[in-house]
Amino acid sequence: MNILILEDDQIFGETLEMFLSLEGYTIDLVSTIEEAENITFNKNFDLYLFDINLPDGKGLQLLNELRDAEDNTPTIFITALTDLNSISEGFKLGAMDYIKKPFVPEELLIRIEAKFLDKTLKYKNISYNPILKTIFIDNNIVDIGVVSTKLFVKLLENIGNIVSKNELLECLDVASENALRVNLTKLKHKLSIDIKNIRSRGYMLEEY
User: Fold this and answer.
1) Contact 77/98 with Cβ under 8 angstroms?
2) Beta carbons of 202 and 164 less than 8 angstroms apart
3) Spatial distance between the Cα atoms of 48 and 97, rounded to a whole number of angstroms
4) DSSP string spanning 94-132?
5) CATH 3.40.30.10 at 2-117, yes or no
6) 121-205 has which CATH code?
7) Which of 64, 169, 174, 197 falls 20 to 30 Å from 113 in CA-CA distance?
8) For the residues of 35-54, what is the DSSP string, one character each?
9) Residues paired with residue 208 on neighbouring β-strands, in sequence order
10) CA-to-CA distance for 16 and 32, rounded, in angstroms?
11) Residue 110: pLDDT over 90
12) Where are the domains of the chain?
């Protein structure tokens, strides 16, 4: 999981960087809006940790610009402010949480894990984290490809219900019933799951 930290307090930023790195996260640390703009243009992240007040602007404005550019990366604001208007604005811009200074790094870790784990979808020993866009089998990452992932997620979101062929065809690069059958067969083998064909209606993952 790649995290971008935007924090102008060098010692505090490096403390967060070291702590989260030890927890297994990959961290990029920047201290200005300009640096953050440059790195987000060239690199994808799974989470942003933005301070609100920076030497060259506000993290709120940066998030607004990123959202306008269709960058929907989950964001947590780090703030020393008690200004409810700023906090409210952050949530309106799409921030998923905020944490108030001073805080211990363990508190931030708890918030990160809670936000991400809450959204995990599960089927038997398989889980999918929609924020990380990652599939796990028995907690081990499995790469099944973009198309197979889209198909699996569509079925996973509708466990016990029929997903129409048209809905599943939207997941394919080239939409045809033959391509759909081939890709579903591949998906079944990759994840060792049973996808039921409901004749003339669609497909489904049965509840277990």
Assistant:
1) yes
2) yes
3) 11
4) T--EEEESS--HHHHHHHHHHHHHTT-EEETTEEEETTT
5) no
6) 1.10.10.10
7) 64
8) HHHHHHHH---SEEEEESEE
9) none
10) 16
11) no
12) 2-117, 121-205
